[in-house]
Design brief:
The protein is mainly alpha-helical. The chain has helices spanning 3-20, 24-34, 41-52, 54-63, 75-90, 96-110, 115-129.
Length: 141
């Protein structure tokens, strides 16, 4: 499975968990059993990094919100940002520019019409503050 699909499937799992409050390990196992949006090892690492470091990741997002609160953010945007920050901070093999682009694409596909611009701005600010690579690169699959 390519990284784009892996990220999308991880997004489905995290988005589902945001409603059910369910055990992410169960959601991942169920995705593998049914083959429906199966979360591979890469996606599992990303989702688990978010759930293991949720307070820090949410703190990073919260610190970069201007005139917004976490509670007001659309669930699609918040889920995409959480996974992106998780990947940028805990999976350094992924270039930040690729991670940001993938999150923006998810929000364009599943979010509100202009939500992607907000997500791009917040993630870009986090990447710049953390001095993460934000130059476009070709990611190996």
């Amino acid at each position: 499975m390519n990284r784009r699909t892996a990220r999308e499937n991880a997004f489905y799992a995290a988005f589902s968990a945001s409603f059910s409050g369910g055990d992410i390990a169960q959601i991942i196992a169920q995705s593998r059993e049914t083959g429906d949006h199966e979360v591979d090892a890469f996606g599992e690492k990303m989702v688990c990094a978010y759930f293991d470091h949720a307070a820090q990741i949410d703190g990073e997002i919260r610190a970069h919100l201007r005139n917004w609160t976490m509670e007001r953010l659309p669930r699609v945007s918040l889920t995409a940002m959480r996974l992106a920050v998780s990947e940028m901070l805990y999976m350094p093999e992924s270039p930040a520019s690729v991670v940001i682009n993938e999150a923006v694409e998810l929000v364009k596909r599943f979010g509100g019409e202009e939500d992607y611009q907000f997500v791009n701005g917040v993630l870009g600010a986090i990447a710049r503050e953390k001095k993460l690579d934000t130059q476009p690169q070709q990611e190996t699959v």
